[in-house]
Amino acid sequence: MSSLYVYHQSSPEQPDKVLTHVEDIASTLAEHGVGFDRWQAATPITPGASQEDVINAYRVQIDKLMTERGYVTVDVISLNSDHPQKAELRAKFLDEHRHSEDEVRFFVAGRGLFTLHIGEYVYAVLCEKNDLISVPAGTPHWFDMGENPHFVAIRLFNNTEGWVANFTGEKIASQFPQLDDL
Ligand SMILES: CSCCC(=O)/C(O)=C/O
Ligand SMILES: [Fe+2]
Ligand code: NI
User: Fold this and answer.
1) Where does Fe(2+) bind (predicted)?
2) Which of 9, 19, 69, 142 is deepest in the core (most CB within 10 A)?
3) Is 120 annotated as a binding residue?
């Protein structure tokens, strides 16, 4: 079940709030400019599927996001536990970073944990299939796919370079629960 855990940054062991209703998750995140929607990922996709197959299956939704919101680049991250670089990729996304553009991700299979560090608070968003999250440019965050990744996310960018991260150098992520702890 998609969930939102809200922590004070000084209490990583105990969330102040845990929300599981989509309206509550969306309204809490919206206070910080973070979009959270539930779309229909109706075509079954198996983690590990190729980028081409995922883009072909979700062409209508991708075109809608690109046309209505002005994104210019799309790619797919599709990982299962057989991926040879899973530990390396996990470590990279787990390092707190920012992007100079919105982070827009549509989960079409599996799940992953986005954690946003906003002011003194930490918002851990457990995203699952059907979830569309949009994190504003400049928000410090990290992402955990777990030790055995099982997810497919479509990523939309408003630049032509695709994924570019600026690492903050903060080691905060290791203090907070990871996907496999939930
Ligand atoms: C869920 S998409 C993979 C992670 C990613 O692109 C990112 O920027 C994590 O913060
Ligand atoms: Fe990111
Ligand atoms: Ni699955």
Assistant:
1) 97, 99, 103, 141
2) 142
3) no
